[in-house]
Amino acid sequence: MDTFDFSVEQKFDPIKHVERKLGFYGEGDVSIACWEPGQVSPNHCHPDATEIYFCYEGGGIMRTDNEEVEVKKGSFVVHPRGELHEYTNGSERTILFRVRYGESMKSMTKNWPTNSAWSASEEDVAYFSK
């Protein structure tokens, strides 16, 4: 059994959200994601993994190709394999607990308009041109 204390595990960065792997279990992993106000994730998917976010503190908006939901303290969102999604943090610091499971945790990124330093890999381009 493993236990984690978010007050110890949390780490914030003013430039981009911070994801920290806490452990690997069978076909999955668990992590903490820490967000400053207004930070935005890349628009991405996990072709071979289901991803679940639980909002421990704060909140924001989770978007897919065809829906947008409010994420608030105590809520959770499940993204089936391959579902393209993007998270935009709200006006306060947020801590999300994430669980992923599947054959591969690999992420494919379609775009990341709020990060001028990001550029698509050849693999990303090929995946989204299908």
How does this structure look, described?
The protein has two helices and ten strands; from the N terminus they run αββββββββββα. A five-stranded antiparallel β-sheet has the order 1-2-9-4-7, with no helix packed on it. The chain has 130 residues and is mostly beta strands. It has one domain (10-122): Jelly Rolls (Sandwich), CATH 2.60.120.10. It has helices spanning 6-9, 122-128, and strands at residues 18-25, 28-35, 43-45, 49-57, 59-64, 68-72, 76-79, 85-89, 94-102, 108-111. The longest helix has 7 residues, at 122-128.
Write the layout of secondary structure elements.
Layout lengths: L5 H4 L8 E8 L2 E8 L7 E3 L3 E9 L1 E6 L3 E5 L3 E4 L5 E5 L4 E9 L5 E4 L10 H7 L2
Short description:
Helix content is 8%, strand content 47%. The longest helix has 7 residues, at 122-128.
